[in-house]
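A reminder before we start the practical. When you read a complex entry, don't treat the lines as separate problems. The point of joint prediction is that each chain is placed relative to the others, so the output describes one connected object in space. Small molecules and nucleic acid strands, if listed, are placed in the same frame. In the example below there are two entries. Take a minute to note the order of the lines before looking further.
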Amino acid sequence: MIQTFLNPEIIAAAWPIVLAGLLNTILLSLIVVPLGLFGGLLLALLASVRHPLVRWPLIAWVDFFRAFPPLVLLVLLFAGLPFAGLELGGFACVAIAFFLNTGAYYGEIFRAGIDSVPAGQVEAARSTGLSRLQAMGYIVLPQAVRNVLPDLLSNTLEVVKLTSLGSVVAVPELLYQARQAQSLTYNPTPIVVAAIIYFLMLWPLVRLLSRLENRALAGRH
Amino acid sequence: MLFRSPAMSAWDRFVETFFNAKVMLKYLPDILSGVVVTIELAVLIVISGLLAGLVLALLRSLAIRPINWLIIFVVDLFRSLPPLVIIVLIYFGGPAADISPSGFVSTWLSLALVLMAFSEEIFWAGITSVHKGQWEAARSTGLGFGQTLMNVVLPQALRLTIPPLTNRTIAITKGTALGTVVAVTEILGEASSAMSNSYNPSPLMMGAAAYLVLFLPVVVAARWVETRFAWKR
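Here is the predicted structure of the whole assembly.
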């Protein structure tokens, strides 16, 4: 069993390949998480303009991406766009798909956070002479982010896990590299190693989240 | 394509490429059979995943230490692993252990395990949120542990879990598209092969539309459920 799934020789041989994948996964996460956060913040700020002509298209936008599987979006960009004469690399496709998909999820979270700040806070801020933008930036957003921090972290966990979709469009992240090593060695060990790396990397975040979520749900009754 | 008139506008070309009626008609049956597979997968995942999650949460409420540690480890494991990694691991690792699960079974098993992990956490949070006094009051009236759990605690706990549970279930069920990677003939798989056969992206557009038709009503319903069962602040 060990010889098949955790073969030491294969681990040694595949290690450089898998390690390169790990570095790319970290790099990819460092790019797509801020990108998603930025997109989400943009959506939430737009949603705070409480005009129905703004609010309804935004709800439709968010629901669209909540219903659309990210892999389908990625394939659409990667395999569909070339037919329109626009050929983007796998990496660019991942970046755009994540900006759209995770932006919608982050946006929904930020929106809930902004809604959770009492209107009196804005009124008080405005009455001291702060502009609308200043009130949002200095008074509302800091409280909003604090209120939805568990959800933001939870979504970030999902985004990091989602970077594994890059393997489908040949972005050399952890899963892609592990599969390359697997097909070179005819042995599942590299994939097991990749799984162990994902687990070790994300377990602390999962533990933290589990504590935060239990506290949040228990406190709301 | 060969007889395209030069007077054709860019818009017409766009429509002919991405929404080609002839191609769409030809591959409609394929996409529809993909829809059936996606629905089968989704239903199996939702039922088995939620059921397993609920069973684990109930098991956890018995408070047997070694069992709880095991449950927590399994839940953490399937929350930290990307679903695609689990699918690939089962599909490509299985044969090495002399079990060769099909792509369908690999995808079902993987996503059901992920849903199990997430729903156990949510069910468990719901159960612990019910005040201790409720347990004590129910037990003091002569109800057994099981009766208290089923008739007093769960009805209150489940109500609380509905909004986070619906969101999570949708997000995980959308993952059926990942089955494409291990050759499951669900919507995306059918659309991709139709696209490479016809060298035209129209089947992919049809597949995308099929996902929206399937999941958009669920998302809209979830939004309604979210406000209906919202936590009272």
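Discuss with your neighbour: Residues 21-61 of chain B form the longest helix (41 residues). What might explain this?
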